[in-house]
Amino acid sequence: MSTKLIYFAWVRERIGKPEEDVDLPAGIETVADLLRWLKSRGEEYENALQYPDVIRVAINQEHVGHREKIEGAREIALFPPMTGG
Amino acid sequence: MAGAVVPAIRIQREDFDVAAEIAGLTKGRTDIGAVVTFSGLCRDEQGALSALELEHYPGMAEAEIGRIAAEAAGRWPLQGLTVIHRHGKIAPGDNIVLVVAASSHRQAAFEAANFLMDYLKSRAPFWKKEHRADGSQGGWVEAKEADDQAAERWKKQGE
Hints:
The complex is a heterodimer.
Chain A: E1 2-7, H1 9-15, E2 19-23, H2 31-39, H3 43-48, E3 56-59, E4 62-64, E5 75-79
Parallel strand pairs in A: 1-5
Antiparallel strand pairs in A: 1-2, 3-4, 3-5
Chain B: E1 8-12, H1 18-26, E2 34-41, E3 49-56, H2 60-75, E4 78-86, E5 88-90, E6 95-103, H3 106-123, E7 126-132, H4 145-152
Parallel strand pairs in B: 1-4
Antiparallel strand pairs in B: 2-6, 3-5, 3-7, 4-6
Helix pairs in contact in B: 2-3, 3-4
């Protein structure tokens, strides 16, 4: 099953695209697993996700922590800490 | 809470009119004793910036602000609540965000507006990019630790 990944702000700029559909390999169970796997996909991902701890994540448009399971996620967004308001 | 207010949330590119938003909450009502508004404006940082560009996560921006507003409506006895957050390119001096909280008494209105802004800052999916007045490449505004701490202080004991 493919999962939609969406990127914002400097995460989007560094990865070089606003979104993509990916087929997650077996064994990717949590947000932390996803970040580790993405980081290995090339220089642009390595550059965007160099410090995974600062990356904020939303699953199906709700904030989640890095230990959250991603099973059943339709849409996973990765972005820097927010600066609205 | 019985009869809790239904917050009005708008994410929009266009400007807003603060007086019209207040009137929208109070018109025809005689039970509101206090209206607190907070407007956030774009600063030029001593002439260094020509604009801020606000990126947002469509869908989640509405949903997350809705969740924060619903929590405020559950915590304070509000008679009206409007939150507007703009996106796109915003010039110094122009509006970015508006919170209008209406209640019978001032304390609830002040606190709810304060709470909303603290949570918006750290949880609403918006990101500001600087456009510099000298034409050089501007960077993304960095999140402030102080904003996270401001949101933390509203946590109830045991959370």
